Each structure stands twice: as C-alpha cells, then as structure tokens.
Amino acid sequence: MSAIHHAPSAPILNVFANADAIVDALASFVIKAQKDSVEKKGRFTIALSGGSLPKMLRGLIGNPAVKWDKWHVYYADERVVPLDHPDSNHLSCTTNLFSKVPIPTSQIHTIDTSLLHDLEELSDAYEKELIREFAQKDAARFPVFDLILLGMGPDGHTASLFPGHELLAEDDRWVAYIEDSPKPPPKRVTFTFPVINHAARVAFVAAGAEKQDILSTVLDNPEAGLPASRVKPAFPGQLYWFVDEAAAVKVAFPSTPFKL
User: Fold this and answer.
1) Residue 245 counted as domain residue
2) What is the rounded distance in angstroms from the CA atom of residue 164 to the CA atom of residue 259?
3) What mean pLDDT comes out for the span 131-137?
4) CB 117 within 8 A of CB 81
C-alpha cells in the first residue's frame, strides 16, 4: 500500500509582549501536550535543542501539573563533546531545567560519549535509542514525537541543519552527523527533517530584536528554503511559533491569539 501524503498545515504564530510572557505560555503549551499524550498512551516523548531554549523552559520548574515520571527526553541535536562540556546541549538542559525537577535520569536519552571518536557509530547509536522507544510502539517509517522544541539561529538554521548543507536533503536516516558545522563546535549529531516533520507538534521559540530579519525571512519568504522554513509537520502534525514583539516587528505573516 502506498503512503498517503498530506500537505502540512499553516504555522500558528503566537506573539507575546516579552520573553517572560513566552515562558509562561510555553509552559502551558508543553503541559497541554504532555496531558494529551499521557492520556492517550501513558508517556510523553519530547525532543529538545540547545541555545537559549533551555532557559525558556523555566516555567515548568515547580509546576505541579508536570508529570516528570512520564517524560522521555531526547535531543533534536547535540554537540559531539563530553556531557559536562560547556558546549553540550545536555549540560545546558540539565543546568537550566533537569537539575531542578524530579525527572528520572534514565528517561533522559543522551549521546553515548564512549563513541565521540566515531561520528558514524555515534549517530547510529543515537538512532537506535530512538528505535527502542518508537519502533515497537508506532507503526511508522519515522518516529512520531509528541513534541519537538526548536530554536533558530541568525542564519536560519535549526537543530544542526544549516543553510546549503547536504544534510538538508537527507530523507532516510533518523539521526545524522555533521563534521563541518559553520558554527562551532564543528562536530554534531542531529535529527533529520523527516523526524522533525513527523512530530505531532513542533514549536519554535525565538525572542529578541536580533531575530527580526531572519524571522521575517523564514515566515514571509519560505521559498528561500532556509532550514527553519523547511520545518513543516505533515498533517495532523502542527507547527507553532512562540516569539516576542521585538522579534516579530518585521513579520507580515498573520499572528494568532494564543490559546491552548
């Protein structure tokens, strides 16, 4: 039987007064995604990226509605460094969030640091981590995360998918590696677009005036093909943007009042 391909839904753009307002709304959004997922299947699968995103999740700390024992956390991308290295996305997420909440460490899925010397083995091993969680539970060609949270760089990159890079065309692997990242450190592993675009929900978080130009390009000129513009979850998946007024000042794309 051939696969049925659905056109992606239009993104939902939520604009908030400032970063603190994003924090509160994002916490409510994550908790709603968690609630829906736990009610359906008893677990919540979420993938995180690094950059400023971990700090934006502080609204979850101390919130009694978060069922940390149901969370299964993966990284949309990771730098090929030890887990305690300043460049590690895991270290950033641990410092800003996981060290402050009662999440079982066995449910936070990190890269295998014994394989840092071999990018092929490292990415294969992380792909197998995803297979263990998803292959037996979901009859899909790619994993279906309940939620993937992403940031966006000033060049329009997301996860470790950079403009003009050959990984933008990867359509088979779940996890791939890059050893020539234009942004240091050069060696990274990353989810591919098929994984990101099979998620039930994907949300970008972008704040600050320095994001004005790139946010306008990504939302208003998607045909430019920047990596962040290529995030288009297939129906019934949905893409959300959580941005502040400073970042959105040049955007023509229509915003939507935030609602759960």
Assistant:
1) no
2) 35
3) 80
4) no
